[in-house]
């Protein structure tokens, strides 16, 4: 007996948009195709498919997309669970059409050993609503752990070249050289130069006194820190042949360096985040510490450069959220004392779809391209097993997006993250998540969560 039939949907997948259907069977997609290809009667007709299905959903007027794969989240579990945890943040993900996530290692304890990794996987098995994967973190002294890890179960190695939440800075030159030469997996880098940040912080403390205004955060963590660290990471990848993924790119200069390195044949890919596409430093006057994150949001010219590199053929390979919840009380303070990071996973897809329709710099950015950046390319880049596409035999991770009769203003009360707020408060969106499926089961429908079984992601590491 087949599972669920979704039909009359506007399917957006692999660069195409067409009126189609998807039939599931257990956790997998059994059949998918165009409505026009179905025979009028008999076997394989719409009537026959409807009679075979356990449930049918007429998706007229709605878009059916592959589930989003967010390869950069901080779900705060273990040790920082007053901000969010695997259960609450995965529910927020599902509400936004994110069906799979890859969590970062800067928790307490940090995920820098096989034991810590196994504990995280066990926790996710117990409580996660979305499919789950994890990075293992690099330190100055855990190279043996990194080399022994099972990278069919691990997305890659997370390397902090600048300190951030969790303070996992790796600054030993010998360790970095060995890591890049010996790594059996992708190295995902937080690229900020620590010495530049410390010097900028000292200079601003002398200039501003006891409190540095939060709108000076882009000066506390200046663009030069990102540029120098990214240049260093690319150089290490060039010399070693390692696969490098530069996370949360925020400057035009980094984009240019990566474009040139790709042209040379360096194995480097680029990620940016919705916050760098939606905001620039002028927005600190309006939103204050809500948009304080590391790396810092930069100039309007950087935002425009990032937007342009989203277009087909652009330098950016993936969009991920760097979802990093903090309690409102932790976000209070100045450029030094307010916590860095923001919750983004629930509204990332909706915001990007809205941005593609309303941002003049993105004329020509299609929903097909958004799906490529948020679904297809993350699956390809990280070698994620049978996800990220609407294909027969792939896992049935799907999201149904409906067009709203009138725009909806996102409010703090809408967020399902434990922290209870969103930097997108007040943003008008004309779309909503109608339904999310995880492994062939409905996990979210019409604003209500349902029980669905999430799975551990499998990875195929490329060399």
Structure description:
It is globular, with a radius of gyration of 22 Å. The protein has 14 helices and 17 strands. 30% of the residues lie in helices and 22% in strands.
Write the layout of secondary structure elements.
Blueprint: E1 4-13, E2 16-25, E3 28-34, H1 46-52, E4 55-58, E5 62-66, E6 68-73, H2 86-95, E7 98-103, H3 114-127, E8 131-137, H4 143-148, E9 156-160, H5 173-182, E10 187-190, H6 194-208, H7 217-220, H8 223-240, E11 244-246, H9 252-264, E12 268-272, H10 274-278, H11 284-287, H12 300-308, E13 318-319, H13 348-358, H14 367-381, E14 398-409, E15 428-438, E16 441-445, E17 448-449
Parallel strand pairs: 1-4, 1-5, 6-7, 7-8, 8-9, 9-10, 10-11, 11-12, 12-13
Antiparallel strand pairs: 1-2, 2-3, 5-14, 14-15, 15-16, 16-17
Helix pairs in contact: 5-8, 8-9
Structural class: alpha/beta
Unreliable spans are none
The tally of structural domains comes to 2
Please give the radius of gyration in angstroms: 22 Å
Strand content: 15-25%
Major pleated sheet:
9 strands, mixed
Summed over residues and divided by their number, the pLDDT gives a mean of 96
The count of strands amounts to: 17
Number of helices: 14
Distance between the termini: 41 Å
The shape is globular
Fraction of residues in H or I helices: 25-40%
CATH first level of the largest domain = Alpha Beta
Q: What's the CATH topology name of the largest domain?
A: TIM Barrel
CATH homologous superfamily caption of the largest domain: Metal-dependent hydrolases
């Amino acid at each position: 007996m087949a599972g669920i039939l979704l039909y009359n949907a506007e399917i957006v997948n692999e660069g195409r948009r067409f009126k189609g259907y998807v039939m599931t069977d257990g956790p997998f997609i059994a059949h998918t195709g165009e409505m026009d290809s179905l025979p009028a009667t008999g076997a394989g007709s719409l009537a026959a498919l409807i009679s075979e299905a356990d449930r049918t959903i007429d998706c007229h007027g709605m878009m059916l997309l592959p589930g989003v794969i967010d390869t950069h989240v901080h779900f705060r579990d273990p040790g920082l669970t007053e901000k969010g945890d695997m259960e609450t943040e995965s529910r927020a993900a599902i509400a936004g059409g994110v069906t799979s996530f890859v969590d970062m290692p800067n928790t307490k304890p940090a995920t820098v050993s096989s034991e810590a990794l196994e504990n995280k996987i066990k926790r996710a098995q117990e409580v996660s609503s979305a499919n789950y994967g994890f990075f293992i973190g690099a330190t100055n002294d855990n190279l043996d752990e990194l080399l022994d890890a099972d990278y069919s179960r691990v997305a890659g190695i997370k390397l902090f070249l600048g300190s951030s939440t969790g303070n996992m800075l790796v600054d030993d030159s010998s360790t970095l050289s060995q890591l890049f030469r010996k790594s059996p997996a992708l190295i995902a880098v937080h690229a900020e130069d620590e010495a530049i940040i410390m010097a900028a912080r000292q200079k601003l403390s002398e200039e501003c006194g006891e409190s540095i205004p939060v709108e000076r955060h882009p000066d506390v963590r200046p663009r030069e820190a990102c540029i120098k660290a990214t240049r260093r990471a690319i150089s290490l990848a060039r010399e070693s042949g390692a696969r490098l993924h530069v996370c949360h790119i925020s400057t035009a200069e980094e984009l240019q360096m990566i474009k040139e390195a790709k042209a040379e044949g360096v194995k480097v890919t680029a990620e940016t985040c919705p916050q760098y596409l939606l905001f620039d430093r002028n927005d600190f006057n309006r939103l204050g510490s809500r948009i304080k994150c590391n790396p810092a949001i930069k100039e309007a010219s950087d935002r425009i450069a990032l937007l342009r590199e989203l277009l087909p053929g652009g330098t950016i390979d993936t969009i991920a959220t760097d979802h990093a919840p903090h309690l409102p009380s932790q976000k209070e303070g100045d450029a030094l004392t307010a916590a860095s990071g923001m919750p983004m996973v629930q509204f990332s897809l909706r915001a990007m779809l809205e941005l593609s329709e309303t941002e003049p710099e993105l004329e020509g950015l299609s929903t097909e391209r958004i799906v490529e950046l948020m679904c297809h390319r993350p699956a390809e880049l990280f070698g994620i097993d049978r996800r990220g596409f609407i294909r027969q035999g792939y896992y049935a991770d799907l999201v149904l997006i409906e067009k709203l009769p009138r725009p909806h203003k996102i409010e703090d009360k809408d967020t399902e993250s434990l922290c209870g707020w969103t930097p997108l408060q007040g943003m008008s969106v004309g779309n909503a998540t109608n339904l999310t499926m995880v492994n062939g089961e409905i996990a979210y429908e019409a604003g209500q969560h349902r029980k669905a079984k999430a799975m551990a992601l499998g990875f195929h590491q490329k060399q």
